[in-house]
Amino acid sequence: MTDPISSETHGDIRIIWSDNPPVNALGAAVRQGLVREIEAAEKDDAVNAVVIACKGRTFFAGADITEFGKPPVMPWLPDVVDRIENCTKPVVAAIHGTALGGGCEVALGCHYRVALPSAKLGFPEVNLGLLPGAGGTQRAPRVAGVELALQMATSGKPISAEKAHDAGLVDRLVEGDLVQHAVAYAEEVKDIRPLPKSSERDDKVRNVDPALFDEYKKANAKLFRGDVAPQANLECIRTATEKPYEEGVKIERMKFMELMSGEQARARQYFFFAERKAAKIEGVGEDVTPREISRVGVIGAGTMGGGISMNFLSAGIPVTIVEMNQEALDRGTAVMQKNYQSTAKKGRMTEEQVEQAMGLLDPTLDFDKLSECDLIIEAVYENMDVKKEIFSRLDKIAKKGAILASNTSYLDINEIASVTDRPGDVVGLHFFSPANIMKLLEVVRGDRTADDVLVTAMALAKKIRKVAVVAGVCYGFIGNRMLIPRQKQAEQLLLEGATPQQIDKVHVEFGMPMGPFQMADLAGVDIGWHRDPERIESIRDALCAIDRWGQKKGAGFYDYDENRRPSPSGKVQSIIDEFAARKGVEKREISDQEIVERTLYTMVNEGAKILEEGKAQRASDIDVVWVYGYGWPVYRGGPMYWADSEGLDKIVDGLKRQEERLGDDWSFSELLLDKAEKGEKFTR
Ligand code: 3H9
Q: What are the residue boundaries of the 3-hydroxyacyl-CoA dehydrogenase NAD binding domain, all occurrences included (predicted)?
């Protein structure tokens, strides 16, 4: 293996280079090389200052995550950072790309930091269930101030080099040749003594009001719910305001080790790789190149069509959006404009960017204009006949090689493709609502979808900052298909004696953003309703028949006040009771454990069926769908990882206990039974 660390000398400045693709992770060889080169520079009388720089696309993006869980190899990153800081000659970090986690800590160990304006700095450790464990929780508040350090470490979101510069985290922003500038900077500072050490500063951590931490937590309660890492990050940063550096790093080390050995960190680290694996399509060679997409067409300017369009507009891709009548087109365009405007109001976009994005939109009533598009996404309502009609029209007008996509959330892509003479160009692109915000994209692979169409869809997803997962054709694909047993059991549990509040509470305590009934009220109880108020076959039908369609009507499974605050509904309870009596279902006390077994274990069982039928490429893809599409708590890894952690035998036992109540149409997944029997796991 070639040494990732090398050096060269410019006059009296030593440049230490790291070249460890793809992201210059701080693996053992990098750590060893850094120490070796710092020591060599120190000993060399001809050297007066050092620059640390990285080749490739980025400065160090952090510790090497693939080393986690393996026996440690010396030197440890904290010792490397200390060694840099204790170098007797000034060390300048030259930052481009993303200085993340351990990378940001290395930069903080350097005496000075020079960065390109396009660079980003951050502490994403929290996303891995960790905290910056190489002195970052102690050095960052000393250099950048407590509030910014708290934000960076507990949210995991990187900040721009400009913001870092304003906070003192970067000493100089430079344009052009970064390393040349860093060398010049090193020349300027080479004689300054004492060397500025982050660990020795205390001006920004002295006299900090301890109330700040509680206030921060209160204002960011969502970050802390159920998740242990943000709290540990906060505590370490608070320690920096209370104790000397030497004590602070000891506490940081202890908490880092505690987190590292915990289940949440394991789940999050699993998920990090799961997300990246999802982008890989089985059976499709690396040599397949994506088709070029320079204009996208969207059919339907409703909530979905508008949201979908915004993704492309924001990424600088022109969109032709088609509607049936002017009023609907105007309404859809106005909603997009309003959504952009509200993003701008929050400071996440400039007015100029809003204008730019909207300037790329071509709203039209002329269906034939879609012939200019390289990708056309149909986003009309869920009706097979309507979709088939649209696709046969598209088949006649779309240019050769254009990709024809449906945003269906349930329907059979093969059947849709069958009305065209080009089934290879047809694919499902299932966006989640609100489509401009939700990260997940299910890419539905029809039996005849061409490889390069899939590759294009995956590449495009990355471009519009979505996480794409390939799904096979089946009713509801991966995500919605798994919702079906959950919804069915949740409703059945109502008849047997549970309340919507109890079921929702179990889900929220588990870590979901909301429970099944809160979700139904938010999304619309009427979604998928047959629209016949006389036909009442479920509690949902009964609610829809009396206009309780959810939050939008001020009533659904819950009652809502004018501020959309929910409260339990006596009316709903009496509907449930009536329904139960009519069906002859006897009421009993329902335990929270039974709710878990009937709503979550059944989801795992459905996930196993999806795997068994080859409708998902791998168990981890199912987890990615559930984390990004439905808010499954990432610190529990996703339903399949969670099932593995619980033990598949426990899941099977729970389902056996409930089997009689699960209904005649419920059945065990053979794969689940088999794996449980053999003591195997889905994800590991
Ligand atoms: C830490 O630093 C702890 C310390 O505080 C204390 C220690 C004591 N290690 O994401 P991409 C791989 S914790 C190993 O597709 P992008 C990744 O798996 C660390 N591998 O690229 C993928 O491999 P493959 C804190 C890594 O351009 C390939 O690189 N740092 C690492 O979309 C490309 O990745 C983080 O959490 C790593 N650290 O985004 C940063 N990072 O091609 C994590 C990436 O085989 N990384 N890989 O699938 C990122 O956020 C993004 O990768 C980054 C680039 C923004 C850098």
A: 296-471
